[in-house]
């Protein structure tokens, strides 16, 4: 009978180790998933900012080339550009929050 108790003890400690290993793997997987999610969000935000800066430079140059540097037409064009940029940025933020707010890169700045 003593051999049976020893076998039970070994099986129990093996189950404990297995459960701990599974828990650690799950925690590592969620941490890596959160990291990838944050990287994806930051990359989308950086891409949006980079493309918008390039487009704004071209927009300002086009008004300058036509002699409209300080005109109401230029101000209206820049205002429209800013409105579209804000709309795209807001869409990006809403998409992030709606997809998974607990892992959202915006929430963890």
Topology overview:
Blueprint lengths: L1 H64 L6 H29 L9
Helix pairs in contact: 1-2
**Total domain units:** 1
Secondary-structure class: mainly alpha
Total number of strands: 0
Strand content: under 5%
Proportion in helices: over 70%
Which residue ranges are poorly predicted, with pLDDT under 50 across at least 5 consecutive positions? 105-109
For the sheet with most strands, the description reads: none
Radius of gyration: 27 Å
Average predicted confidence as pLDDT = 77
Helix count equals: 2
Distance N to C terminus: 60 Å
Question: Based on CA inertia axes, which overall geometry fits?
Answer: rod-shaped
Instruction: List SSEs in N-to-C order.
Output: HH
Question: How would you name the oligomeric state of the polypeptide chains in this document?
Answer: single chain
Q: Notable features of this structure?
A:
85% helix; rod-shaped; 109 residues; mainly alpha
């Amino acid at each position: 009978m003593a051999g049976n108790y020893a076998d039970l003890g070994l099986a129990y400690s093996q189950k404990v180790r297995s459960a701990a290993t599974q828990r650690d793997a799950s925690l590592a997987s969620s941490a890596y998933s959160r990291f990838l999610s944050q990287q994806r969000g930051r990359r989308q935000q950086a891409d949006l900012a980079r493309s918008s800066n390039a487009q704004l430079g071209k927009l300002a140059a086009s008004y300058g080339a036509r002699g409209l540097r300080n005109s109401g037409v230029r101000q209206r064009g820049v205002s429209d550009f800013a409105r579209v940029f804000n709309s795209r940025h807001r869409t990006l933020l809403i998409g992030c929050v709606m997809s998974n707010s607990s892992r959202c890169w915006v929430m963890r700045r």
